[in-house]
Amino acid sequence: MPEKTRNILTEAVTSGDRRSIFHRYGDRPSYSGKEKFIRWLLASMGHLTVMVTVSIILVLLVDALFFFEKASFIEFFTGTKWEPFGQPKKLGVLPLFSGTMMIAFGSCMVAIPFGFGSAVYLTQYASPRFQALVKPVIEVLGGVPTVVYGYFALTGITPLLKVVFPEIQVFNALSASIVVGISIIPMVSSLSSDAMNAVPNSIKTAGYAVGMQKFHVVTKIIIPASTSGVIASFMLAFARAVGETMTVTLAAGSTPNMSWNYLEGIQTMTAFIVQMSLGDTPAGSIEYYTIYAIGLSLFGVTFLFNFIATTIVKRFREVYK
After folding, report:
1. Range(s) of the domain holding residue 284
2. Residues 6+ apart with CB under 8 A from 221
3. CA torsion through residues 152, 154, 156, 158, sign
4. Half-sphere exposure at residue 38, Cβ-oriented, CA atoms within 13 angstroms
5. What average pLDDT is seen over the chain?
6. DSSP type of residue 141
7. Is residue 19 in a domain?
8. pLDDT above 60 for 276
9. What's the start-to-end Cα distance of the chain, in Å?
10. N or C: fewer beta carbons within 10 Å in the chain?
11. How far apart, in whole angstroms, are the C-alpha atoms of residue 229 and residue 196?
């Protein structure tokens, strides 16, 4: 663009005479048929997402109410025995909840150190070539089917654990926790890496400018500045472990108990839903409606942890300009 023309345009824009340059300046957006269709399509997608979520909640609520018409609400949430097939029926969900928390905490003990450590190394220490090689390998772990992890726990992890712990059972919480932890390493690593990469380079170089070493820059500047994203990755990984299904169904067994012994078999809430969904339970029975009561409880737990993660992000979020 010639210098004279550029000066004329600049003067027109800065003087406030924008309409002479932008003929639609200040007008409403275009309401052509294409834009109306795009606006309608995007709005439909947003509304459909909300409708699906609300529909799931309504289905769980309605069928869970049928369960609580036949069973005690207080016994369900405070009972320590889960025997829905016996007589009399004992419908305390705490053993299933205990097994779910065992898997969630145990898997996080595996996923958080390895996932966070790999994120720190790949973003702060590794060369670009090594990072390009290793990062896809880590992300592949998230694409392995969970049923494969379950069989890997039975045929690979449990025999190795039996060498160290001869008394370990074939179905046990320890091997299930290890493989669930392996499966959620990519989530912790990816989200933590994104949080660290979001820290501006100017802050990091400022640390070097005052004479800080690499280790202190990482531990005193990078990690504290990305705390909100890192903690959110931990919480989301925990929620992901709570909802794990096939791995714990195959590896952890189907014995509800509250012993918190990782060498014994347990049963989680998701594993029981799988057990009850095999088609042997008559529809309309109290055993059938336990699926919805447990599903609603599981939904509440995962929603709670996602809400906590969102709150932490908002509370500790650092905004850089």
Report:
1. 82-316
2. 199, 203, 204, 207, 212
3. positive
4. 7
5. 83
6. G
7. no
8. yes
9. 32
10. C
11. 8
β 90-91/82-83 pair status = antiparallel
Both tokens of 102, joined, read 């065992």
CA proximity to 166, closest of 263, 248, 251, 252: 263
pLDDT at 24: 58
Instruction: Give me the pLDDT at residue 177, please.
Output: 93
236: confidence class by pLDDT, cuts 50, 70, 90 = confident
Q: Is the separation of the CB atoms in 90 and 83 below 8 Å?
A: yes
- 285: domain CATH number? 1.10.3720.10
Tens of pLDDT, residue by residue over 43-75, are: 999 999 999 989 988 988 888 888 888 888 888
Q: Classify residue 7: in a domain, yes or no.
A: no
Domain assignment of residue 176, yes or no: yes
Apex CA 106: angle with CA 277 and CA 119, to 5°? 110
DSSP H or E stretch at residue 181: helix 173-197
Number of domains within the chain: 1
**Dihedral-angle region of residue 279 (phi above 0 means left; psi in -120 to 50 means alpha; beta otherwise):** left
Give the pLDDT score at 213: 87
Separation in Å, CA 205 to CA 119, 195, 201, 220: 20, 17, 6, 13
pLDDT (0 to 100) of residue 132: 84
Cβ count near 62 (within 10 Å)? 10
User: Two tokens at 97?
Assistant: 């909840």
Give 83's strand partners: 90
Domain membership of residue 31 (yes or no) is no
